[in-house]
Amino acid sequence: QVQLVESGGGLVQAGGSLRLSCAASISILSINRMNWYRQAPGKQRELVAAITSGDTTNYADSVKGRFTIFRDNAKNTVYLQMTSLKPEDTAVYFCYAAIGFPPLTYWGQGTQVTVSS
Fold first, then answer.
1. How far is it, in rounded angstroms, from Cα 14 to Cα 5?
2. Among residues 9, 4, 14, which one has the least CA distance to residue 91?
């Protein structure tokens, strides 16, 4: 069983920045893909950013140029650096990992991000 623990959420004013962390209980070198999703009240969960074991990244159009996903293999942690935050970024942010093929998938418990206007 893989555990993912998110941290770094909080309350920030519009235009501010936050860095989310997702610490894995195993070496992230063995994880094929790690994603950040978010879910706002009354909305479906959406993919925000993804990174593969080869460091290929992709982003939702709504966060391109503002968010950056990156890995620290030594710390078994994936980060989501969020800048120029907007009120519409308010959501619970979840970390996701996919391992192997067909993939075994794991989710973190989520961390709340609230952006005030």
1. 26
2. 9
C-alpha to C-alpha distance for 10 and 65, rounded to whole angstroms: 21
Tens digits of residue pLDDT in 39-58: 999 999 999 999 999 999 99
pLDDT tens profile 15-32: 999 999 999 999 999 999
Buried (b) or exposed (e) across 82-91, using 16+ Cβ within 10 A? beebeeebbb
Give SS3 for 112.
Answer: strand
Distance of alpha carbon 6 from alpha carbon 26, whole angstroms: 14
Q: Which of 43, 47, 53, 38 is nearest to 6 (CA)?
A: 38
One-letter amino acid for residue 90 of the chain? T
* Whole-number pLDDT of residue 1: 86
Residue 44 half-sphere exposure toward CB, CA atoms < 13 A: 2
